[in-house]
Amino acid sequence: MLRIAVPNKGSLSGPAAEMLHEAGYQQRRESKELRIVDPVNEVEFFYLRPRDIAIYVASGQLDIGITGRDLLIDSGADAEEILPLGFARSTFRYAAKPGTITGPADLAGKTVATSYEGIVAAHLAEHGIDASVVHLDGAVETAIQLGVAQVIADVVETGTSLRNAGLEVVGEPIMTSEAVVIRRTGTDGEDPKVQQFLRRLQGVLVARTYVMMDYDCRVEQLEKAVALTPGLESPTVSPLHNEGWVAVRAMVPSKEAQRIMDDLYDIGARAILTTAIHACRL
């Protein structure tokens, strides 16, 4: 069986479980379950702390895992990203009291508090900055107020927590993060079971991004219509019973669907419909 590590809690847990469910995999019914077997799909899921997943995968005890890119890099584990999943997006940034720090160069001689010591140490070394790093587990915003550090480095999603603590972000993002699928560095990239798993997740990502659009148009307007809905390779075009009309079907980006429907209507297309895509293979 394919052995997969899945986040057991936090912002990664719910979206990961939802994506796996959409991909056709059985998921746990209770949060206390730490392991389940999906015999139909020949997969065994292990529910672990997100911070630990890269370590388990790097050890070779588990084949692949879902975790955050930030957690993967911070762990320093011998594992690599093989597929971004598009959820739990965030940026990792420095923050300080307004007016005290303007950029990375001002960090020299300062103390930086963070829960991601590996990322911060690597970033400081990359820029040749001599600063101290203090490791804290969570709630790093209070480190400045309590005098533990002059600067913090943390994941920033909306910035609300920083503003509430009287802090502001400093400089450019250290890195951007999202949920990713990882595997042990150097493992066989052509493993059929892993490839099937990745295809399923990629199918979910495409299904979430596109809708299927169907419409009728006159033959003389077909080239204009196809230019609006080129599809992935090419749209499907079928003749209608009424001479001079054709039916067209194509996948279009869901975010652009309403605009495309308006444009199609303007060139004379009618019976324009969109339907959700629940699964696909490209």
UniProtKB/TrEMBL annotation:
The protein's enzyme class: transferase
Organism: Streptomyces albogriseolus
Taxonomic path: Bacteria, Bacillati, Actinomycetota, Actinomycetes, Kitasatosporales
Full protein name: ATP phosphoribosyltransferase
Record keywords: Glycosyltransferase, Transferase
EC number: 2.4.2.17
